[in-house]
Amino acid sequence: MEVILLERVEKLGQMGEIVTVKDGFARNFLLPQKKALRATETNKAAFEADRARLEAENLERRKDAEAVASKMAGLKVIMIRAAGESGQLYGSVSSRDIADAVTEAGVAISRAQVVLDRAIKTLGLHDVVIRLHPEVSETVVVNIARSADEAETQFNTGSAVTASDADVEVVEEEVVEELFEDEAPEEAVEEVAAAADETEEEVEA
């Protein structure tokens, strides 16, 4: 089907271009969302007669979107979620969840503006694109963690904190405590030094 684009459509074309698309894509997406018109002679003439107004309105919307994008630049949001030892979430984070988090952070957006192929199901830092206008997008960092402390660690390290990481630290502490259970660390060091001196004396003898 041939259609006239009423706005820029990624990987398809700019406003005013006449492009050929699959019928299903046109009927299910472009036409109902008013992103395009069927490229009939009547619609072509109507578009050309109204082109100046449409372009002016698009320019105004783009300016508004750019203003919002400037406020969103560098934005990072934290989302606290329950997760298993491997970092797998008990549930998932959807585009609606992200839209709510960004809005709570001070920039009002809708679920439809969040570009997310699939729900997020793991802990960590996730770059998510927010499309504010067909020609204006901004990326926000979504930090999904089990607690505020873990979120801060993830910001600092750039990687997810899993339960296994915490377990390793606990085990290391327990091993150290077991080794020095009956003596202070200083005493243990003195014993090692004394043993080394004895060995050295034996060698010299």
Automatic annotation (TrEMBL):
This is Large ribosomal subunit protein bL9. Residues 179-190 have a biased composition (Acidic residues). One of its GO terms (cellular component) is ribosome. Keywords: Coiled coil, Ribonucleoprotein, Ribosomal protein, RNA-binding, rRNA-binding. The gene is rplI. The keyword Protein transport does not apply. Residues 13-40 form the Ribosomal protein L9 domain. Pfam families: Ribosomal_L9_C (PF03948), Ribosomal_L9_N (PF01281). Binds to the 23S rRNA. Residues 37-69 form a coiled coil. Belongs to the bacterial ribosomal protein bL9 family. The keyword Ubl conjugation does not apply. Residues 179-205 are annotated as: Disordered. PROSITE patterns: RIBOSOMAL_L9.
